């Protein structure tokens, strides 16, 4: 479609529908990237679980250490007074605070354990042995890694690294000073991760938690735990077949929706636009119904548009035909007037009288007759223009119209019967124009009596108008409603009376037709009911 100069750009319906469908189809894929927002939440959840598990083991560890204070168990560093918890506080929660996005809590992979500088104290070996069954049972359910350290950071219980030192690791060193610390470390998986893991940073890290064990404000040991954060991507990868089928279903559904939109909206709209272009070029075949309408509303729009276009085309044809007829009808009297006026002018300018008195009088009579005919034709044109104006909530009773008709023709016998009290959807003035033209036409064709009969129907009022005048010949029956057709041209007939009647009835949603009859003339009118 060619854009007009200065016209604002607007998207096509097809482009809008395609964009909406494309956005809907990509939403599931875009949603995968939003899973990264849940990384911190999953890490916080993992840290909270490790804090809870570590705190329980720390309480058991502290009881075991307190029970061995009499045997001379060696405690670690003393906690500074400012770092000690307030004894009046009944609750001292440790809230998860790891932040993957900030990057400050993300450290390198955990360093390996180092050999201990000295053997582990027998008291701590005994504590480790007491805690080991608890660690193993807990690990079966939580899947977390546990290391129980003594006051010097040496592992005394755990699946691995027993007897080795972890005191050089940052979070353990902080816990040995009496402060809890958790960090994120890059993990080295046992097997290559699936490609979908690249979407999330959280699945490539390990949460490490170092919980100090406090006895008499001194560090008795550390509960060192670790675990990989929970993630949804492992489940997505394991069920990738189902998700691929779901993605294909989304694509298939999007294609189906696009085809439905194309058939119900885009295709009918393009066809209607093409019809409008063809109509503007004068193609009369473009008035036929569309092949596909799509929706009920678009069918109504298409019907209304094509009906309007066809009506405008008929109106244009009518105006062209009417103009040609009017030019022809005006040409004859104007030519006659001009010829007579030129002859009279020549007679006046001539020294000798070329025209007799009687001839001059005849020419003047011809001019006056043609002028009268032009005046009558002008009056009929005004009536025709008024008849074709659209009605504006008009209504009147037939009895009032019949009364006006009898007043206009007081010397003629006019009989009216039927439901004359019924109101019709037409003004009294226009209804009187219709009946007056039919009555005048009957009188000019030697009618002595005019009979009107009205019958009320549900949506219209049917009226028959018959007269006993001269019948209409068979060849003329198809021409009587044509503009300027008359059999009384020599007596001043304009041939516009019945065309005015037809225009009035048509513009108000009514109709008129000539009924077959043996004697006289009978018309049937259908007035719209008010």
Over the alpha carbons, how many angstroms does the gyration radius reach?
Answer: 53 Å
What fraction of the residues are assigned to beta strands by DSSP? 15-25%
**Mean pLDDT, rounded to whole units?**
81
Series of H and E elements: HHEEHEEEHEEEHHHHEHEEHEEHEE
What is the spatial order of strands in the main beta sheet? 1-6-7-8-3-4
Question: What does this protein look like?
Answer:
With 530 residues, the protein is α+β, with helices and mostly antiparallel strands. It contains eleven helices and 15 strands. The strands form four sheets. The protein has a six-stranded mixed sheet. Strand 3 and strand 4 form a beta hairpin. Helix 9 packs across helix 10. The longest helix has 54 residues. It is rod-shaped, with a radius of gyration of 53 Å. It starts with 12 loop residues before the first helix and ends with a strand.
List the helices and strands and how they pair.
Blueprint: H1 13-33, H2 39-67, E1 106-107, E2 114-115, H3 122-142, E3 145-149, E4 155-158, E5 164-165, H4 170-176, E6 181-186, E7 205-215, E8 218-227, H5 233-238, H6 240-280, H7 296-349, H8 357-387, E9 396-397, H9 398-408, E10 413-418, E11 423-424, H10 428-444, E12 449-456, E13 460-467, H11 497-507, E14 511-515, E15 521-528
Parallel strand pairs: 1-6, 10-12
Antiparallel strand pairs: 2-5, 3-4, 3-8, 6-7, 7-8, 9-11, 12-13, 13-15, 14-15
